[in-house]
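Hypothesis: this fold can be encoded by more than one sequence.
Test: take the structure tokens below, design a sequence, compare later.
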């Protein structure tokens, strides 16, 4: 089959080759997995991190294939897949692989992939596979699970103010829609050229971070004394957290999804463990890490059914042969929503 394979570590251009000789994987006995024929894969910043940080000569990582998100068709059903899943050959499904699968190099940028059934959700009837790959993978699942904290009893349901930093990214663009649907007023932080786009997603106010540098000083002016109920940081700004007492309520929540070069260790120690007496910031800090699941993917689908998520923000689609160009666009950090690779294109 056709697949992208890493031959060294580094950037996608340094490390990836399009391989036409990998065997089609098969399902073992007593398998709770599906064999999928992949049609679309959407890319995530974590794909780039894994290619750079995990060399292909690691013993558990032979001929590694990148890619986490997928949409495709079931071509074989494992004999131990729970019957209540009600999924059969020919069904269109989507979702995202777990981090361990991808660390082992069992990625989705291939024509066929074996996927654990607990990671799979059915593609909603009204969607095409491109939309499903873009919305129900890592980004959409992250947004749906993070937004639960807005809906929790101590969250800001019913008129509270939440700030989404990185509102036009894969995660932020879904988060804005769900938070709005939960009744929150959403302050979206993005570059000025994307103002109309995030307003169309449901943002109440838009802050151009380039026109208001440093962002924290501007927020301290606008939300003086701490008026925000929650801050979702999809960019990973330490200053945004350190200054948060100036604009985040005392019991407000700060949720960061970017671990940085230390994969979250440094922000966790600095922001979660450091006592106030040693300079800690007096605001609740969470470092969120998604555990991908079919359940979280179905949560995204439920928001779509309710009309809260109006659609996937798809930046662009690339044919399978141009996956390196797709990764390079992702690496600019400027994509508006998701970048999708069409695996079936020839
Ligand atoms: N912890 C987890 O479980 C988890 C899950 C998913 C993603 N993540 C991480 O979360 C981050 C975001 O992921 P993503 O998929 O949303 O990324 P993405 O789609 O690549 O984000 C691109 C967006 O970032 C915006 N951006 C760049 N710099 C910005 C800044 N200084 N301020 C505000 N916006 C800025 C850009 O908007 P403009 O062009 O308007 O500037 C662009 O729309 C990544 O680091 C990713 O690895 C973590």
């Amino acid at each position: 089959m056709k697949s992208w394979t890493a031959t060294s570590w580094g950037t996608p251009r340094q490390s990836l080759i399009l391989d036409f000789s990998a065997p089609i994987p098969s399902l073992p006995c007593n398998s709770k997995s599906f064999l999928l024929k992949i049609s679309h894969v959407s890319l995530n910043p974590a794909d780039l991190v894994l290619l750079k940080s995990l060399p292909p000569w690691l013993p558990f990582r032979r001929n590694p294939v990148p890619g986490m998100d997928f949409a495709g068709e079931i071509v074989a059903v494992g004999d131990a897949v729970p019957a209540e899943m009600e999924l059969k050959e020919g069904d269109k499904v989507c979702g995202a692989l777990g981090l361990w699968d991808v660390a082992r190099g069992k990625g989705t940028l291939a024509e066929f992939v074996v996927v654990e059934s607990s990671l799979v959700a059915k593609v909603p009837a009204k969607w095409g596979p491109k939309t499903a790959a873009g919305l129900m993978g890592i980004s959409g699942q992250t947004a749906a699970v993070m937004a639960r904290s807005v809906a929790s009893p101590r969250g800001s349901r019913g008129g509270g103010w939440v700030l989404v930093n990185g509102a036009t990214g894969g995660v932020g663009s879904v988060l804005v829609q769900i938070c709005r649907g939960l009744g929150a007023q959403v302050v979206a932080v993005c570059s000025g050229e994307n103002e109309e786009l995030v307003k169309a997603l449901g943002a109440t106010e838009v802050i151009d971070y380039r026109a208001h540098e440093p962002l924290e000083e501007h927020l301290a002016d606008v939300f003086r004394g701490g008026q925000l109920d929650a801050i979702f940081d999809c960019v990973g700004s330490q200053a945004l957290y350190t200054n948060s007492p100036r604009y985040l309520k005392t019991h407000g929540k700060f949720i960061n999804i970017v671990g940085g070069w230390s994969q979250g260790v440094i922000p966790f120690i600095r922001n979660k463990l450091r006592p106030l007496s040693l300079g800690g910031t007096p605001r609740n800090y969470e470092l969120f890490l998604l555990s991908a699941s079919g359940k979280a993917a179905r949560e995204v689908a439920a928001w779509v059914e309710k009309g809260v998520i109006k659609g996937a923000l798809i930046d662009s689609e690339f044919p399978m042969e141009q996956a390196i160009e797709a990764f390079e666009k992702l690496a600019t950090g400027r994509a508006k929503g998701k970048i999708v690779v069409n695996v079936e294109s020839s």
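The longest strand covers residues 33-42. Residues 44-46, 138-139, 142, 165-166, 168-172, 189-191, 194, 209, 234-235, 257-258, 288-290, 330, 333-336 surround NAP (CB under 6 Å).
Hypothesis status: open.
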